[in-house]
Amino acid sequence: MLLSESDRILFIGDSVTDAGRKRRCSYDLGNGYPKMVAGMLEALYPELKLTVLNRGISGNKIHNLEERWQKDCINLKPDIVSILIGINDTWHRVGTPSFGDEEVLRRFEARYRKILEQTKEQTHAQIVILEPFVLHYPIDRKDWRYDLDLRRRIIERLAHEFAVDYIRLDTLLNQQAKDVGEQTLTGTDGVHPTPAGHRAIAKAWVSMVENN
Question: SGNH hydrolase-type esterase domain: which residues (predicted)?
């Protein structure tokens, strides 16, 4: 991914991206990785005068993203779209018959494909896909792995198909957790990042820019 002067960078997804943003203020970035990325990019490339937007909404699943894609993505005319979605699609199905269900996963793929197609067809935006993740604290989060891994494979396959940047957050954060502990990165639920977790995501995002 390459940055250009005056680029509009859009971060969109669920609560991990939302990070407490004030939704009445269209330019509020919340307190998570989008705000950290904005700060890092401003320090590295002040001459580019970038605009960063956050349209994460807590609790969103892929169908929510699909429903609001025109309003919260296409209409904003972004130059770069960064997508992180999928953990709620797993979390909200734990302990139900739809957990790991083939038809449910087919619908997940179709909806994800649709938003990628829309973005390609209706904008000139570069796309960055962030892999959904879960860390294994509490210990029952290991039970989520079957469904989430199926979704991760779908998302990675789509990233290759659409030739877009892909950041393997699940791999990255679980690897870092071996050194610092899961709670350091995602607190008490294995999903919502602590400041250290958000910083790890932001660094991975900015490293992708620097390495291109």
Answer: 11-200
Per-residue pLDDT, 210? 84
Active site residues: 15, 189, 192
CB 128 within 8 A of CB 83: yes
- Residue 60 CA to residue 19 CA, distance in Å, equals 13
- Match 């309003």 to its residue by tokens: 71
Predicted TM-score (pTM) above 0.85 = yes
Burial class (CB in 10 A: 0-12, 13-18, 19+), 134: buried
Unique residue bearing structure tokens 């994460």: 56
From the candidate CATH numbers 3.40.50.300, 3.40.50.1110, 3.30.505.10, 3.40.50.10420, the one assigned to the domain spanning 8-210: 3.40.50.1110
